[in-house]
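Hi C.,

You asked whether I'd gotten around to modeling the 458-residue construct. I have! Everything is below, sequence then structure, no commentary in between.
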Amino acid sequence: MTRLLLVVCLAALPMFGAAAAKVGDAVDVTFSQHIAPIVFNNCTSCHRPGQGAPFALTSYDDVYKRGMLIQAVTESRFMPPWQAREGYGHFIGERRLSAEQIALIGKWVKTGMPEGDAAAMPKMPDFPEGWQLGEPDLVVDMEIPYQVPADGADIYRNFPAAIGTTEHKWVRAVEFRPGSRSVMHHSLFSADASGKAREVDARDEETGFSGMAGVPGTTKLGGWAVGSGPRVFPQEAPVKLPPNADFLFRSHFHPSGKTETEVSSIALYFSDEPATRVRVGIQLPPLYGRGSNIDIPAGEKEFTIREQFTLPAAVDIYSAGPHAHYIGKDFHGWAVLPNGEEVPLIHVPDWDFNWQGSFVYAEPVRLPAGATIHVEVTYDNSAENPRNPHNPPKRVTWGLASFQEMGSISFSALPVNNEDAELIRQEYGKLQAKHTMQAREQMKGHKESIRRNTGTDD
């Protein structure tokens, strides 16, 4: 099975053996010999000047000042931010600390945080300057800056920008750079060759146009969220970019308390070789759970939606992307093979809306025809959930806004045989159609409930 040529910012960093070695109680734990390798390899990529973290961790003094905080957030596994549970898939760029590494940090703090021999300090990793994937083939910037207000509700805005290519290109990777990280929550990317995005933009007086749905018929190119890195497509399946198209930034902003100016940029990396394999997407439940009757009572701690899909042909699963909003809690994805064997795909037991991304398998997971993919998404709408945006809790239904909910795991796959792609799409399309019908019926019932309770028609 061909290894995916995927590059994530931490994947290329050197691994330091000293931090992984078992250390007995009699060994003195020092920063230079034991702690610096852990921090440099797992924290400094974000905790350095010009990156998204609020402070730097590039020296002994930096780490010493926040030693107790680092002990607390690593022992709770709040940091480094890595949501996927160990044993449910092996992913590129994993930032999970081992129990031994966490114990080393704890012992170092308890013994006074000694620096140790400066000569034993490992060299700082050679972090790339500028674009993490190197010199791009093309960079597309937002054409007009957008002013994000100091306060108010979350903002969902779409910005078309001319790509400038006049012939088909094959995109092997994209890398996103927000202009103002303090307000950018996430951005989704697509290419629009129809001109529809430009038409909608012209009707809106402000820069870009509002909404979360974008425009239909675009070529999807992935996305970025806080904590994620570049998006690199499988070597055998680069994305075909249409000529004379607009790049569409579909961005979600959190006002930060002061006015910010956003000019997003996207770097495109082209392949000289066209795709030899076809990509298919399998999102469970479909429509981000719109037809799954997401109606979560206030105080409910374990509201769960479920869906499954039986593959009509063999596929290689190469990534999994969970998505929910604030009260999403637990994502569980697995497959059951025709012989009854269970294959773990992904488990995120403590979802955090503020750290999203796509989990890319170090090796694709091959599933045969007849395998059934199962997904469960659980929500915690109780007062005990520290991420609940409502205090006291309120009833939450499906919706696009952050204070509403949705939920699914999106699997990207390559059919083992290209000719099976259409069969997979047809079968999955039946599941989508079922959920579309369910969504309509649920919306109808929701409106009837409102009329009964309020005596109105809205």
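If it helps when you're writing up: Residues 421-454 form the longest helix (34 residues).

Thanks,
B.
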